[in-house]
């Protein structure tokens, strides 16, 4: 049997009915289905991710880590905050930090002054301290919550963020970003098969309305290699069955280099996978990993 999201109830029912369930143990699913858990999978897979920090549980930790991220990535305008355990943009907020950072121009001059040494902590330390002194006021006054019905104020969002834990990550530094959904299947022997891809059609910047399948935003072979790496990292953590990953692709400003960042992971049989199966059944078609 295949269930959408594995739970202890599914396991108990499968045992009573003597029907095997294809999927990971519920505790494993719960651990790696969070935003922080996805970061662990992506880091283990060795795929590119946005500059980010995860497992954040206090406001002090949030401001300290964000100060360091901003100092290391002065070209990033927007930073995104995601609550562990939320989905589909529900627990998301963002802030255009550099727009309100009075020391930003000074920080850029510091980075230019140190050149290749800017990546060293000692070189960034004075800048991190200055950014840290400004961040609380910037966040408290300018954080934009995507779902204001669920979190009607910045304070309520931050309380939920620190209670559940969460991640901070960079928003791609481009005005032309496409997010790609990839549904894959990890079989019990560790083989990874891509079953569906699609370019997301967004209702808002952080909420998906539909997908256009198959994806046409990046060379399939490049997407395939990243997905296989993610699938194998899942298998190494005893995750089998259906997995869905989201990637963001964009052109790096000032160059012709196309970026591909892994940004989200769902350990479940998704609606997009179900719709792809229905489409293939109705049309008699099949998904071709070489072209999609």
Provide a brief overview of the structure.
With 292 residues, the chain is of the alpha+beta class. Helices cover 41% and strands 24% of the residues.
Verbal overview:
- The chain starts with 7 loop residues before the first helix and ends in a 9-residue tail after the last helix.
- It is of the alpha+beta class and 292 residues long.
- It contains 10 helices and 10 strands.
- Strand 2 (79-83) and strand 3 form a beta hairpin.
- The longest helix is centred in the middle third of the chain and has 22 residues, at 121-142.
The radius of gyration over CA amounts to 20 Å
Major beta sheet summary: 5 strands, antiparallel
Helix amount, in percent?
A: 40-55%
Give the termini separation: 28 Å
What fraction strand?
A: 15-25%
List the helices and strands and how they pair.
Elements: H1 8-17, H2 26-32, H3 35-45, E1 52-56, H4 59-72, E2 79-83, E3 92-95, H5 97-100, H6 104-114, H7 121-142, E4 144-145, H8 154-164, E5 166-170, E6 177-186, E7 192-204, E8 207-212, H9 220-236, E9 241-251, E10 258-266, H10 271-283
Helix pairs in contact: 3-9, 4-7, 6-7
Label this structure with key terms.
292 residues; alpha+beta; 10 helices; 10 strands; 41% helix
